[in-house]
Design brief:
One of its GO terms (biological process) is ribosomal small subunit biogenesis. With 366 residues, the protein is α/β, with parallel strands linked by helices. It is built from 10 helices and 16 strands. Strand 12 (151-157), helix 2 and strand 13 (181-183) form a beta-alpha-beta unit. It binds guanosine-5'-triphosphate and zinc ion. Zinc ion binds next to helix 9.
Length: 366
């Protein structure tokens, strides 16, 4: 460690502690704590070399509370973060502002978001063509991606297993507005080039999608080597549940992949702004309803109902939007409740401090 000089490096890996699944049984509920050490690449530009000429990672400790300073107060270091190391202690001192962040709303009464991956450019939403793609799931994952601030791209896998992959892709594209949809087969190599073209130098991507969609197979095909264990190899059947860390993996060409077990089983809670992105068509219709607070159930002058009647908006898409919208509203109320509780606690502390001061001084303060 060169002393006396601040260095900015990228958090390449944060050790996480995995505990047994929560009451819901969802492995995404596992409590994960960023524990020492955080590893970061040694390069001063904060970027890891691609390929095998990788520099030895630099290990940097965290402060006792496991957090670092940021614009938004003390925060957990996430994979992909740019962090400044304190020249004196060598500890991670500051997390630089994130240009994007993939977040998950953690379960439980304390409704906090957890950053799964920071400074991501591209979110590859991977869905299989066989069995049939689940459009609702694609919409959900696109919402997660839009919320992060990164660009989503849909990749439909297993094209070799269906007779008309491109016809199916059209249906998916109708549910993925303003998003490129690629059709690939890892088995034949079909369609991989346009996906590979996304992986420019310095581009950070994450891959999301259901188990068995072919995420690992796709990434390995892109990388030209095995960097993610695929379903076939994971004989113990425990796979992602036993992954104990998140990693930034260099790909050929200088792109980086963030692989996190949390992303594979992500419990996304929708977010209102991101929903307007995913469902721009529905949002546009809703803006034309006669009443600003239209519930699109029976109001006169409802543009959404009219579009459903006229067949311009399909029932499936409307139902999918409705479901995610309810989730977003519920989540918003939880966040509000948490903020209200925090505010109440703050005032309680202030009042208590005031009373203590009064007892001490014997007279009220101004
Ligand atoms: N025929 C065919 N099979 C594929 C293709 N892509 C993946 N598979 C197979 O699908 C299975 C699941 O692939 P994985 O890459 O492990 O899926 P995954 O999305 O990483 O799954 P998790 O790690 O559980 O999240 C494996 O048996 C792959 O060989 C493809 O393009 N064509
Ligand atoms: Zn309406």
């Amino acid at each position: 460690m060169t002393s006396g000089q601040w260095r900015v490096v990228r958090a390449e890996r944060t050790a996480v502690l995995v505990v047994p699944a929560g009451p819901s049984g969802d492995p995404g509920d596992t409590a994960e704590a960023a524990a020492e050490p955080v590893q970061a690449p040694r390069a001063d530009d904060g970027l890891a070399d691609s390929g095998d000429g990788r520099p030895e990672p630099l290990r940097a400790g965290l402060a006792r509370d496991g957090l670092a300073d940021s614009d938004e107060g003390r925060t957990t270091v996430a994979v992909g973060d740019l962090v400044a190391l304190d020249p004196e202690s060598g500890l991670v001192a500051t997390v630089l502002p994130r240009r994007s962040a993939l977040v998950r709303d953690t379960a439980g009464r304390t409704s906090h978001v957890q950053v799964l991956a920071a400074n991501v450019d591209v979110v590859l939403v991977v869905e299989h063509l066989d069995p049939d793609p689940d459009l609702g799931r694609v919409e959900r994952l696109l919402t997660l991606a839009w919320r992060s601030g990164a660009q989503p791209v849909v990749v439909l896998t297993k094209a070799d297993l269906v007779p008309d992959p491109h016809g199916m892709a059209q249906d998916v594209a109708a549910a993925a507005l303003a998003v490129d949809v690629h059709v690939v087969s890892a088995a034949t190599g079909e369609g991989l080039e346009p996906v590979r073209a996304l992986l420019g130098p310095g581009v950070t991507l994450v891959v999301v999608g259901p188990s068995g969609a072919g995420k690992s197979t796709l990434v390995n095909a892109l990388a030209g080597r095995e960097i993610m264990a695929t379903g076939e190899r994971r004989q113990d059947g425990r796979g992602r549940h036993t992954t104990t860390h998140r990693e930034l993996v260099p790909l050929p060409g200088g792109a980086m992949l963030i692989d996190t077990p949390g992303l594979r089983a992500v419990g996304l809670v929708a977010d209102a702004d991101a929903l307007d992105h995913t469902f721009a068509d529905v949002a546009e219709l809703a803006a034309r309803c006669r009443f600003a607070d239209c519930s699109h159930t029976r109001e006169p002058g409802c543009a959404v109902l009219a579009a459903l009647d006229g067949g311009e908006l399909d029932q499936r898409r409307f139902a999918s939007w409705r479901k995610l919208e309810r989730e977003a509203a519920y989540q918003e109320r939880r966040v509000d409740a948490r903020l209200a509780a925090a505010e109440k606690a703050r005032w309680k502390r202030i009042t208590q401090a005031y009373h203590r001061g009064q007892r001490g001084a014997g007279a009220p303060r101004p």
